[in-house]
Specification:
305 residues, alpha/beta, Ubiquitin-like (UB roll), Cytidine Deaminase, domain 2, 2 domains, 4-stranded mixed β-sheet, 7 helices
């Protein structure tokens, strides 16, 4: 297995004070080639660790598999270098008997960076992959007082982030009990989500009904797409969603929550899934998504990639 962190000598400089040299810990980033049945499908930049989960979740996101029964096995390919050494950066997945191999159109034209879960798609028309699950009729509800605890619990579980400050995280919570089901970290936010979904594949838990997907960054289109493919009815993010993410969520019946911090949040679609204790004053209209042009001056910021 590759290294999760790397140590490097750095120079720390504060204006007005002498420079200090010290050792710093960086989040590792290495390529992973994902093969299916011996045929290369994609190369993604990731943080080594939970690679089998990453591969399984990636195949769910691409519509290749939709249940744990579809995933046969995975192994690292030996002799990944000209010297015959195993770098643990090439992974071959075997699908279960009877499961169709990936369509060649799904193969990426070039590698996927850690900040992009859709780079290299052969056709933009293939982005809106058809999900096997109907999340619109998921009866999930979650109490607002429980939902606001998820970001801190996500942050508390980020072991590698504590050392490096350079990783995204994704976690899956049971909406009814608040139980943290799984948490994964990666340099790529989409990889972290794939690792969460891949865990569910191996546990044969798809579709992920009644769950909330909590992410440390923003709610982008690709994360909303991955939630749909895994049957997750509610992604929640500490930062902003994109307009395309909201459009897809409204189309698929997904509840999107952004700017989930402290005791507040912004609900962009599906507000009926979030319940509150009765108060003296309630919003006059919670019947639909907020308009995409709504100004939120108190929450404007520059989102991280």
């Amino acid at each position: 297995m590759g290294r999760i962190t790397v140590r490097r000598r750095v120079t720390r400089l504060t204006v007005g004070t002498p420079a200090i040299q010290r050792e710093d810990v960086l989040a590792a980033e290495e390529p992973l080639e994902i093969r299916v049945g011996g045929r290369a499908m994609a190369i993604t930049m990731r943080t080594p660790g939970h690679d089998f989960d990453l591969a399984a979740g990636f195949l769910v996101s691409e519509g290749v598999i939709s249940t744990g029964e579809h995933f046969g096995a995975a192994r690292y390919c030996a002799g990944a270098t000209v010297e015959g050494l195993n770098t643990y950066n090439v992974l071959d997945v075997t699908l279960a008997p009877g499961v169709a191999p990936p369509d060649p159109s799904l193969e990426r034209n070039f590698y996927t960076t850690s900040s992009c879960g859709l780079c290299g798609k052969a056709s933009i028309d293939a982005v809106r992959t058809l999900s096997a699950y109907d999340v619109a009729h998921d009866h999930l509800t979650v109490r607002d007082e429980l939902l606001v605890t998820f970001p801190d619990r996500l942050r508390e579980g980020q072991d590698v982030f504590e050392k490096t400050g350079g990783l995204h995280a994704a976690a899956l919570f049971d909406a009814a009990t608040g139980e943290l089901l799984v948490l994964r970290e990666d340099v790529g936010r989409h990889n972290a989500v794939d690792k969460v979904v891949g865990w569910a594949v191996k546990e044969n838990r798809l579709p992920l009904r009644g769950t909330v997907l909590m992410v440390s960054g923003r709610a982008s289109f690709e994360l909303t797409q991955k939630a749909s493919m895994a049957g997750i009815p509610m992604p929640a993010a500490v930062s902003a969603p994109s307009s395309l993410a909201i459009e897809l969520a409204a189309e698929m019946g997904i509840t999107i929550v952004g700017f989930l911090r402290g005791n507040s949040m912004v609900i962009y679609t599906g507000p009926e899934r979030i319940t509150s204790a009765p108060t003296d004053s309630t919003p006059s209209d919670l019947s639909g998504a907020l308009p995409l042009t709504t100004e939120l001056p108190s929450t404007r910021e520059t989102s991280t990639a």
